[in-house]
Specification:
This protein is an alpha+beta fold. The chain has one domain. Helices cover 26% and strands 22% of the residues. It has five helices and seven strands; from the N terminus they run H-H-E-E-E-E-E-E-H-E-H-H. A three-stranded antiparallel beta sheet has the order 1-2-3, sandwiched between helices. The radius of gyration is 16 Å and the shape is globular.
Length: 164
C-alpha cells in the first residue's frame, strides 16, 4: 500500500460526516509499515469503540466494535477478510453504518474481522495469533492469499458504500 497523508485519510471516509471525519484520531503515519499493508486499519484511541479502515483505493469506512467482554480460550473464530484463525477475542464483529441516507436511518452491515485489524501482517507471517491455534496450511501463494483478502475486504466495503 502506498503511504497516505492525513488529509487523504480524512477525505476518504464514505460513511460519516466531514465533521466526524475531522474528529477521528489518525495513527502516527510515520510509524505505519506501509510496505506490509493491504489496507490501513486502526482503533481511535479517543473513542475505543470506533475502528476505522482505509483501502489502498482511498475508500475509508468508520465501524463500531462491541464493548469488550471476557472471552474463553475454548472458543475460536476466523477472520472473514484474511481467514486467520484466532482464539478468544481475536476476531470481532465490526459494524459499519451504511453510506448515505440508509446509514443516517440507522442501517448497518457487519463483518467478522481480526480485532486488531492487522490482517495484512497475519497474511505475511509478521504477526501471529495469540493462543495455541495452529494456522491452517494453504496451497495458495502469498499473492493469492492477499488477492483473496482484498476481494473479501472490497466486498465488505462495497456493501457499506452502496448504501444498501
Amino acid at each position: 500500500m502506498e503511504p497516505l497523508t492525513e488529509p487523504e485519510i480524512r477525505a476518504s471516509f464514505a460513511n460519516c460526516s466531514r465533521g466526524e471525519a475531522g474528529r477521528i484520531k489518525v495513527p502516527e503515519l510515520a510509524a505505519v509499515p506501509w510496505g506490509d499493508l493491504d489496507f490501513l486499519g486502526w482503533t481511535d484511541p479517543g473513542a475505543p469503540q470506533r475502528a476505522l479502515l482505509v483501502t489502498s483505493g482511498h475508500v475509508g469506512i468508520v465501524m463500531r466494535r462491541p464493548t469488550a467482554r471476557p472471552g474463553t480460550a475454548m472458543r475460536s473464530s476466523m477472520c472473514r477478510i484474511c481467514n486467520t484463525g484466532h482464539t478468544s477475542d481475536g476476531v470481532t464483529l465490526f459494524v459499519a453504518p451504511l453510506a448515505g441516507a440508509a446509514g443516517r436511518n440507522g442501517n448497518t452491515v457487519g463483518e467478522y474481522i481480526c480485532s486488531d485489524l492487522a490482517c495484512s501482517l497475519y497474511l505475511r507471517g509478521k504477526k501471529q495469533p495469540r493462543g495455541r491455534l495452529v494456522r491452517q496450511e494453504e496451497t495458495l501463494t502469498l499473492d493469492e492469499r492477499v488477492d483473496r483478502a482484498l476481494t473479501n475486504l472490497n466486498g465488505f466495503v462495497k456493501r457499506v458504500t452502496s448504501g444498501r
